[in-house]
Amino acid sequence: MITGSITALVTPMTPKGDIDHDALGSLVERQIAAGTAAIVSVGTTGESATLSVLEHTEVVHGTIEAAAGRVPVIAGTGANSTSEAIHLTRAAKASGADACLLVTPYYNRPPQEGLYQHFKAVAEAVSIPQYLYNVPGRTAVDMLPSTVARLAEIPNIVGLKEAKPDLERVRELVALELPDFALYSGEDSTARASMLAGFHGVISVTANVAPETNARMCKAAVAGDSENASALDNELSGLHSALFTDPNPIPVKWALAELGLIQHGIRLPLVTLDAWHHEDVRAALRQAGLLS
Asked: Where does the record place the catalytic residues (predicted)?
């Protein structure tokens, strides 16, 4: 089981919106050097919604090549079409991904039985470890713990990224006591508390910017070291807030560009960070010791 800090990696782009493959390799190297436990490639933070299917598979393949087996690569392969999710998951397996992360179908708002049948169909179609991803704030559907428990009985469904910012939901999921089933926070602001309550790690946006501190914080939290986890998380608290002043991944891509790690490139309908928020992000970078 993967534990600790898992980075939901951005997809670097040129100002014209083309994929910057050289920057992608550099970002992967930085994550590995910082002690990141695994990398999610082309999740929602990686702008999966606006990459073509070909671009999607190319970025996943490029991430896997750059990682070269040093850390697991989890490919984002979710879609609101079950057949498309199966296609993307098959492509990720063919590229050599270690696992896949599948977001709940968005917009069409399936009921709980629809969610169950959707994820069951993907799991049965592709024999690769699969993580569920619940993010009701962006998909307009909330996968309940009872549905997660049903899905956990399927052998290659091995975990969940829970991004509902509710510690009561965290407690409900931990109370299920699902054997060999990984629980990851999808909310940086509550990740430390979630891990101290029994989650196994976080799939993090903040880790794009501050991977080393986030990795150390997660290691402490998973070990139950509340004091050290809190001290490290305090260094990151500004980032947890500032990186969500505009819809993700707008602020995190701007922050990485401010650090000189990527170019200013993002796909429409997203646009670069509003100047109103620039100083907030800079202040958070300074708090985290990343900017003088």
From this structure: 133 (proton donor/acceptor), 161 (schiff-base intermediate with substrate)
Band of residue 66 on the pLDDT scale cut at 50, 70, 90: very high
184 is catalytic: no
Domain ranges in the chain are 4-225
Angstrom distance (rounded) from CA 114 to CA 172? 22
Q: 203 labelled as ligand-binding?
A: yes
DSSP 111: -
- Catalytic residue, chosen from 93, 106, 161, 164, is 161
Tokens 């299920």 belong to residue = 176
Q: Is 161 known to be catalytic?
A: yes
Tell me if 45 is assigned to a ligand binding site: yes
**pLDDT tens, 121-155?**
999 999 999 999 999 999 999 999 999 999 999 99
CATH code that applies to domain 4-225 = 3.20.20.70
**C-alpha–C-alpha distance, residues 285 and 138, integer Å:** 26
Overall residue count recorded for the chain in this entry: 292
